[in-house]
């Protein structure tokens, strides 16, 4: 599968078409063939799990420290994506690239800077949940009456509402039963908002350094183990309830003991991280776990940076990452999106000479540090 449909929702569709929604849902959010519906009265209701939550209580973590000065930097967005089925028999990864969501969704202009949206969705047990989330999660964000005034809460609510809407679709058609991890990146002006539920990953390149913008929700993560056990679940042999190798995902309502209307060990609520971009921020990589099975975060940033210095094309860079992952024997489906924030390619960095002779290269040391950082999470 190639990445020729970059910049649209078409890459997220199956040959059978997108899964059906409840009739009332399609009436408000669009037609099943993907053509946007005429504007309608907003009837979105905040997800019940967030209605009693104060804004200060929503999980929001900073990916980097707040800058000590007010930057006048305005990102210039360029993006590209690529996918490959890998060694699997079915393709269950999908992505979405929207470089100007105000134009694409007919929203009133509320910022002088960029308005962009990107996402990757890694399906399991079928592709229906991934297709559903790819097509509908952005609409829950942009058609929320609180957007963009309360972005973090709106995005969190959109994940949960997408999960609930998919459950309703599955009650109408049991063949849709499946699950998907989801990671979205929303850029409004200088503000980058990354939301993640699962083991997709987002990495920001800041002057050559990899900045983690998401955490992998794996059953081996101590933080996730505590949450799972508090919800009545367990981790057995590295799997959630002995069945799933992720602790957060959309869908999977058909799996006994995972989810209920009152909660459950498998959560669809994302962790949200925000950062204000500066002149030092060069590009963002978001990808499904097939990429990160063979790339560490700093290694991927170093690789992508070299390629962008050669051709300065995010689409070609995405293909380069996928091709390299295949060479490194990734056994999973592959999907990656690269978003550049500058017109120019990343500059060459001149490292100061060290008086101490080293046996490791600078890139090797960064990869070792990235490995040690991963062990802490």
Automatic annotation (TrEMBL):
Family statement? Belongs to the PP2C family.
Species name: Rosa chinensis (China rose)
EC number(s) stated in the UniProt entry for this protein = 3.1.3.16
Q: What is the lineage of its organism?
A: Eukaryota, Viridiplantae, Streptophyta, Embryophyta, Tracheophyta
Q: Which domain of life is it from?
A: Eukaryota
Region of interest called Disordered, as start-end residue ranges on this chain = 1-20
Q: Please name the GO terms that the record assigns under molecular function.
A: metal ion binding; protein serine/threonine phosphatase activity
Q: Which residues form the PPM-type phosphatase domain?
A: 78-341
> Which PROSITE patterns does the entry link to?
PPM_1, PPM_2
Protein known as: protein-serine/threonine phosphatase
Cofactor requirement: Mg(2+); Mn(2+)
Q: Which reaction does it catalyse?
A: O-phospho-L-threonyl-[protein] + H2O = L-threonyl-[protein] + phosphate; O-phospho-L-seryl-[protein] + H2O = L-seryl-[protein] + phosphate
Q: Which InterPro entries match?
A: PP2C (IPR015655), PP2C_BS (IPR000222), PPM-type-like_dom_sf (IPR036457), PPM-type_phosphatase-like_dom (IPR001932)
């Amino acid at each position: 599968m190639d990445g020729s449909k970059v910049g649209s929702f078409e890459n997220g569709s199956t040959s059978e078409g997108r899964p059906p929604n409840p009739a009332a849902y399609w009436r408000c959010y669009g037609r099943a063939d993907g053509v946007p519906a005429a504007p309608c009265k907003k009837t979105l209701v905040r997800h019940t799990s967030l209605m009693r939550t104060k804004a200060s209580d929503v999980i929001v973590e900073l990916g980097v420290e707040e800058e000590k000065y007010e930057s006048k930097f305005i990102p210039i967005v360029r993006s590209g994506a690529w996918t490959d089925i890998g060694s699997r028999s079915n393709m269950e990864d999908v992505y979405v690239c929207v470089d100007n969501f105000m134009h694409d969704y007919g929203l009133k202009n509320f910022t002088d800077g960029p308005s962009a949206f990107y996402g990757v969705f890694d399906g399991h047990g079928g592709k229906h949940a991934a297709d559903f989330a790819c097509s509908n999660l952005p609409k829950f964000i942009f058609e929320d009456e609180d957007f963009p005034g309360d972005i973090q809460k709106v995005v969190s609510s959109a994940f949960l509402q997408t999960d609930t809407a998919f459950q309703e679709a599955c009650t109408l058609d049991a063949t849709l039963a499946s699950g998907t991890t989801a990671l979205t990146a929303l850029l409004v002006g200088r503000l980058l908002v990354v939301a993640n539920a699962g083991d997709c990953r987002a990495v920001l390149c800041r002057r050559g350094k990899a900045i983690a913008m998401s955490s992998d929700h794996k059953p081996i993560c101590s933080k996730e183990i505590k949450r799972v056990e508090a919800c009545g679940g367990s981790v057995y042999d590295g799997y959630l309830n002995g069945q799933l190798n992720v602790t957060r995902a959309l869908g999977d309502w058909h799996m006994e003991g995972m989810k209920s209307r009152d909660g459950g060990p498998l959560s669809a609520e994302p962790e949200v991280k925000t950062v204000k971009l500066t002149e030092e921020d060069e590009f963002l990589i978001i990808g499904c776990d097939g990429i990160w099975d063979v790339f560490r975060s700093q290694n991927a940033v170093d690789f992508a940076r070299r390629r962008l210095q050669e051709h300065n094309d995010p689409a070609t860079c995405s293909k380069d990452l996928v091709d390299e992952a295949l060479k490194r024997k990734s056994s999973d489906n592959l999907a990656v999106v690269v978003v550049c924030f500058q017109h120019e390619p990343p500059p060459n960095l001149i490292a100061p000479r060290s008086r101490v002779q080293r046996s490791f290269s600078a890139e090797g040391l960064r990869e070792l540090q990235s490995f040690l950082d991963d062990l802490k999470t």
